[in-house]
Design brief:
The structure is a single chain. The chain is an alpha+beta fold. Helix content is 34%, strand content 22%. The termini are far apart.
Length: 753
């Protein structure tokens, strides 16, 4: 579609000059328009009259195109090409397609009156001298008067102000009430319909005026400064001292509004690119789009901004502006609990979202107190079928007004990244909430048998998994602990650095003899610590006893796991806004990883980067192994000193070092055998690491969500009110120490009778 449209820069109110590189334009007004490649000449004229604001009956154009006569790399020479008909226009509009280094077309306009006299902007008379003029861009030179002087003019019957206001081509009576004869102000908001300023335009206060001036400056890629000469009197000037642009305004007693009473324009300087895009004006404009359709992607908003405003914003700037806009639209916490069911319903109707609610009904059953919401997108459910049979779950506190908790379940994709699978927001994390969350995964997300569930060793999670009839028990699932969470829990009971170090070593080794040696050291140093470990099965926290269920994943990287949910951490972002931004992150993640995997496959790659990097790391190890065949198609691998020995069995992908089985791809000893036999070691890498699996994981697409006004009501969900926050427990009484005895309150005193 982009190839069918051409960006055209239109210059006027200046002059054409020559240089060694050909013609250029100096001292002009610039506007950007988008023109279709097959636009006819008359159609272009219609656009030019619209963008310049000139009267077609009083003005004509001579159009000179800046045509590249010579293009050598980045060096371009230009010559003038008059654009007078469809053929010459087509020649100009084909420039970007013929020369890819040239991104837009330049058109220089010589504006003529109908009497064939070229209009010189510097020589234009003021509306006082030519009250019949209809141009909105004439230069005027009216001093900013004090309120007393303006009042004297009105009392003396002077019509100067009337003429100054009448720059729109309307009669002086058009702004007067037909009954009272009182001038009616031309009221404006920040969003000017024609994105232009003019004498007579009114604003409710100076702040709104400043926003409008800044907004128009941003539109025109200009900058200006303001100074308040007196109370409620303002003068704006261009930051470039040679530019003649200025604007004067003051509060008028006749209507109490701030009115533009002097305007000298347009700018006579070259446009500049704004240095700071992170202004409230980008947010204000994007907010308008977000209020209509808050689920627009960052890419869609970037495209919309470029088409509407005329220049491109950085992705980070658009994301920042959208986050602020979402906060403005959905920034009320109490209201967000009422909005959330409608948003989830919109996701259900457009994308098939699976959702489950928890709430406490009030005596009036049409109202309820929010307790929690569980949701999962079918795109994630479909993609999880191509991930390894493993799920990681965790929860975190949200630093928000209602002390909510965020729960997440993720798979692991072929590139060893977390794959977001299901989410929940609850008012508490407890045995009941974990039961609800884990049951939701089994009932709504996946019924795969033999799943490995990795979690913290929290008593609430363990209690739910050990309940009778739980689908998270063997052989339906295998529960494993995250080693970093297990270490943290151990350290709270036994705060010893050395004991903790041996716990980590014991948990991460893949060899059982090493595991046993570390356990014996722990027993020698602290028998109570050894007894504490006995309450947990060794296969839940030690890699050596895992049987390959966890694919070598020993720890939960909490930061990476919740990275897709970073919207929930934004200051002031309520739950509805956070869910909206999470939807953005999911779509973006799916698009990015699918495109990457497809490109890699097209290049002939088979396996993901982490696997290839690890195999390359193993291959470059400076270790020499001696490989000898033994019985049953097995191979003995030893070091030259023959102090260490391993047996590799290629037929069942195993090695006595256990790493081949744990990680599902060749270990160092297997690579030595493959090198000896001249086998390709990639044939022994598990399919879960292939790029084809990665592509299928992210192949599902997200459907557009309807505009906010079309969000359906959530069926069966009462009107949700904020959760009831239990009162904080009273502080513990102070502890007093006397001698060797400790008591929690001061000694009682006897009352005198």
């Amino acid at each position: 579609m982009a190839g069918l449209e051409v960006t055209v820069y239109c210059y006027w109110n200046g002059c054409i000059k020559d240089s060694p590189n050909g013609i250029y334009y100096e001292g002009s007004t610039l506007r950007l328009i988008i023109v279709k490649r097959k636009t006819e000449f008359n159609g272009l004229l219609d656009q030019l009259y619209q963008v310049t604001g000139l009267d077609r009956s009083r003005s004509t154009f001579d159009i000179i195109g800046r045509y590249p006569s010579s293009v050598q790399g980045s060096m371009v020479k230009y010559k003038p090409l008059p654009v007078v008909d469809d053929t010459s226009l087509e020649t100009m509009l084909e420039v970007p397609s013929i020369h890819p280094s040239i991104l837009h077309v330049d058109l220089f306009l010589k504006v003529k009156s109908t009497s064939d006299r070229v209009i010189d902007p510097a020589a234009c008379s003021s509306p006082l001298a030519n009250p019949g003029s209809s141009s909105k861009r004439q230069r005027i030179d009216i001093p900013v008067k004090s309120e007393r002087e303006r009042e004297a003019d009105r009392n003396s019957g002077s019509d100067r102000v009337v003429h100054a206001v009448d720059l729109t081509g309307e009669s002086s009576m058009s702004n007067k009430d037909s009954n009272s004869g009182v001038s009616k102000p031309c009221m404006s908001s920040l969003w000017l319909d024609d994105h232009d300023l003019r004498v007579g335009l009114c604003f409710k206060d100076g702040g709104e005026l400043k926003k409008a001036v800044d907004w128009c400056s941003l539109k025109g890629k200009q900058k200006c400064v303001v100074r308040e000469t007196a109370k409620d009197e303002y003068i704006f000037e261009c930051v470039r001292w040679k530019c003649k642009w200025s604007l004067g305004a003051a509060r008028m007693k006749k209507h109490g509004l701030v009115e533009i009473i002097k305007y000298t324009g347009p700018h006579t300087c070259h446009p500049i690119v704004p240095e700071d895009f992170k202004s409230e004006f980008e947010t204000d404009e994007i907010e308008r789009a977000v209020r209509d359709k808050p689920t627009q992607t960052i890419a869609e908003l970037k495209k919309w901004w470029k088409k509407k405003i005329g220049y491109e914003l950085e992705t980070s700037d658009v994301r920042f502006a959208k986050e602020k806009a979402i906060k403005r639209v959905f920034g009320d916490w109490d209201q967000s609990f009422e909005d959330l069911p409608k948003l989830m319903s919109a996701f259900c109707s457009s994308n098939g979202l699976l959702v489950d609610w928890k709430y406490d009904l009030f005596p009036n059953p049409t109202f309820a107190s929010f307790c929690g919401v569980f949701w999962a997108f079918p795109q994630s459910i479909e993609g999880f079928q191509h991930c390894r049979p493993l799920i990681v779950v965790d929860a975190k506190n949200l630093n928000c007004e209602y002390q909510l908790k965020l729960m997440i379940a993720s798979g692991v994709d072929a590139a060893n990244r977390y794959f977001p699978l299901a989410f929940a927001v609850t008012k508490e994390v407890s045995t009941d909430s974990w039961r609800w969350f884990l049951t939701g995964i089994r009932e709504k997300v996946t019924q795969r048998k033999g799943l490995c569930l990795i979690s913290s060793p929290h008593p609430d999670i363990i209690a739910v998994i050990n309940e009778s009839g739980s689908q998270w028990q063997e052989p339906w699932a295998y529960h494993r602990f995250s080693l970093n969470h297990f270490y943290s829990q151990f350290s709270r009971v036994f705060p010893s650095f050395y004991l903790g170090m041996y716990i980590r070593r014991a948990g991460s080794t893949s060899q059982k003899d090493e595991f046993d040696s570390y356990i014996n050291v722990i027993k020698e140093k602290n028998p109570e610590a050894r007894k504490w470990l006995d309450q947990f099965p060794q296969n839940q926290w030690a890699l050596a006893h895992d049987d390959g269920r966890r694919y070598g994943i020993m720890e939960i990287n909490t930061k990476a796991l919740f990275a897709v949910c970073k919207a929930f951490e934004l200051a002031g972002q309520v739950v509805t806004g956070s869910v909206l931004l999470l939807f953005d992150e999911l779509r973006s993640s799916f698009d990015k990883h699918f495109s990457f995997s497809r490109s890699s496959l097209n290049c002939g790659d088979v396996y993901t980067e982490p696997v290839m990097d690890k195999l390359e790391e193993f291959r470059t190890y400076f270790v020499t192994y001696i490989v000898m065949p033994v019985d049953n198609n097995a191979f003995q691998v030893t070091t030259p000193s023959q102090k260490d020995e391993w047996i590799v069995q290629l037929s069942d992908c195993s090695c006595t070092c256990e790493e081949f089985q744990r990680y599902k791809f060749p270990c160092l000893h297997t690579l030595a055998v493959c090198k000896k036999l001249k086998f390709n070691p990639l044939q022994y890498v598990d399919d879960c690491y292939t790029l084809e699996r990665l592509k299928r994981t992210y192949a599902a697409t997200f459907s557009p969500v309807p505009e906010m006004s079309a969000w359906p009501e959530a069926s069966g969900v009462p009107r949700l009110l904020p959760p009831v926050i239990p009162p904080s427990p009273p502080p513990s009484p102070p502890t007093y120490v006397s001698g060797t005895k400790r008591r929690t309150s001061p000694p009682a005193t006897k009352k005198k009778s």
